[in-house]
Amino acid sequence: MKRIILIVVAAMTLAACNNSKPNHTHAAHTAKEDEETSAATDKTKADTAGVADTTAKALATETAANTKTDAAVAKDRSFEEVYSAYFELKDALARDNGQNAQQAAKKMQVVVAKIDAAKLETATAAAWKQYQRKLAFDTEHIAGIDENGHQREHFVTLSKNMYALLKVVKPDAPVYYQHCPMYNEGKGAYWLSKQKAIDNPYLGKSMPTCGSTVETIQ
């Protein structure tokens, strides 16, 4: 009887061992799958973070480029206002119109004063620091009197400094550097114009076509 009981117990123990092996194998397999899934998830997160970082850098670069372009456009527009006021002044002197020359000079004073060298590119800023005060000085004197003779004296140096500025900060359209050989008892003087045709601001209506184009700035 004891022998039969031992045999039954042994059989039950063997069966229990056999049943436990598949469970152990399944648990190990499940753990391995979980580990692989976790690794895949971590890799996906890393890849996503990398793409996000690359996209952010690209957007930052594009934004910086657009900002720089916008700044350049703003710069060009500011200087175009200076040039426009100068040409208006030149035309008024060519018509011997002292009052219109005054108004144009006042307008030029305003646009010259509002350009901040600190916001300009290096080369442009250097040129502007050199010529801003000189332009302001001559426009102030022209704006302060409506007598053409004194206005033209300052227009000589104003044109000289405008020429130097235009060589650094190029205009949107061609500008013609022109010369009058007869002004100031034959000493001559230069000016700038949007038109190639001569319209002399120094001799005015008395000799409007006296002079020649010596250079095209573009």
UniProtKB/TrEMBL annotation:
Keyword Glycoprotein in annotation: no
Location of the region described as Disordered in the Swiss-Prot/TrEMBL record: 20-46
Boundaries of every DUF3347 domain copy: 82-171
Signal sequence extent: 1-20
Keywords carried by this UniProt record: Signal
Protein name per Swiss-Prot or TrEMBL: DUF3347 domain-containing protein
InterPro entries: DUF3347
